[in-house]
Design a protein that fits this description.
Blueprint (H helix, E strand, L loop, with lengths): L8 E10 L5 H11 L10 H27 L7 H16 L6 E10 L3 H10 L4 E6 L6 H15 L7 E4 L7 H14 L7 E7 L3 H5 L4 H15 L7 E6 L12 H7 L7 E5 L8 H17 L4 E4 L7 H14 L5
């Protein structure tokens, strides 16, 4: 009888999150959890709570559900959930030769939750956990929030596993190379006027208070442009997904899309190297609404580059980064 291999080491990939389905009720549950996180909205609770529960959660779920329905997969999964699952499975297969390693994924908001997956890992004997946030650039609203969730999940446990957190990979050669290959496989940049690199936005105040997110976004963009041999006048960085009234990082993606045709840049390629998987922000906000803005302003060609998703170059890079983060453990 062969011995059962008990996993000693766990790898937990964590993405931001997704509703369970594209219905107003599911979106409301998701938004309630997401917008209740102080890392995401750090306004005083006395001001934010009445606005959130009295207005936003009464009106926004209906509108957001309609947007999710535009990009939801026919197999019943959101694109973000589907591709995160594929990425975790691929890394699990790549590490299958390493005995005693289990690979799982979780969502910071929604299902499967960080708490549930950590408990499942510890329940099968895992004693060391590598938490790997799937955010290339660090932001308190994303990466730090994952760390908060891990600490909260373990707060009442008598025995805490050894923890390790993977570092942001905004400048990792494997990540930059995967995006280079993804873009080159989709388009001939010599036949275009501009490569627009759109990152998720962040309140300017967060950057002023020391968040390194904007610096890391620009470094990713510079490295990618260099890998693509693009001169400075052929690419541009913008920030999308503004929320609320306070100033956010600029230039804004939607404003830029409306201005580019008048600047003579009518053949556009757009990529979102702040995301590793396609989601509402890439598929609906940029690929659909963004394209409408650009064409209404006089743009002639608009090509959206898919995120890395389950491309082989990205899966190989992700497995390599995971091995690097596990050094000394396996």
């Amino acid at each position: 009888m062969s011995a059962v291999c008990v996993p000693e080491t766990g790898v937990l990939f964590v993405q931001l999150g997704t509703p369970d389905d594209p219905t107003p009720l599911a979106v409301r549950r998701y938004l309630a959890e997401f917008l209740s996180d102080r890392r995401v909205v750090d306004l005083p609770r006395l001001l934010w709570w009445p606005l959130l529960h009295g207005l936003i959660l009464r009106t926004r779920p209906q509108r957001s559900a309609a947007l999710y329905q535009r990009i939801w997969r026919t197999d019943g999964l959101s694109p973000l959930l589907h591709y995160t699952q594929q990425q975790a499975q691929a890394v699990g297969q790549a590490l299958s030769a390493e005995k005693g390693v289990v690979v799982q994924f979780a969502m910071r908001y929604g299902n499967p939750s960080v708490a549930v997956l950590l408990e499942a890992m510890l329940g099968v004997g895992v004693e060391r956990v590598l938490v790997f946030p799937l955010f290339p650039q660090y932001a308190a609203a994303t990466t730090a929030s994952v760390l908060d969730a891990v600490q909260a999940a373990l707060a009442r446990r008598r025995r805490i596993p050894t923890l390790r957190f993977a570092q942001p990979f905004f400048a990792h050669p494997g990540y930059i190379g995967a995006w280079r290959d993804q873009i080159r496989a989709q388009v001939d940049l010599a036949q275009t006027d501009c490569l627009l690199l759109s990152f998720h936005g962040l309140p300017q105040r967060h950057v002023d208070e020391g968040d390194p997110y904007a610096v890391q976004c620009h470094q990713t963009a510079r490295l990618l442009a260099a890998a693509l041999d693009l001169p400075a006048d052929r690419w541009q960085v913008t920030f999308q997904s503004r929320f609320g009234r306070e100033p956010w990082l600029t230039p804004a993606t939607d404003h830029t899309l409306a201005q580019l045709p008048a600047q003579g840049k009518k053949r556009l390629v757009v990529a979102c190297p702040g995301f590793v998987s396609d989601c509402l922000e890439t598929l609906e906000e940029v690929a659909l609404r963004g394209q409408e803005i650009f064409r209404q302003a006089g743009g002639e060609q608009f090509q959206m580059i898919p995120c890395l998703n389950d491309s082989q170059a990205w899966l190989t890079a992700l497995a390599q980064m995971t091995r690097e983060a596990l050094q000394g453990w396996v």
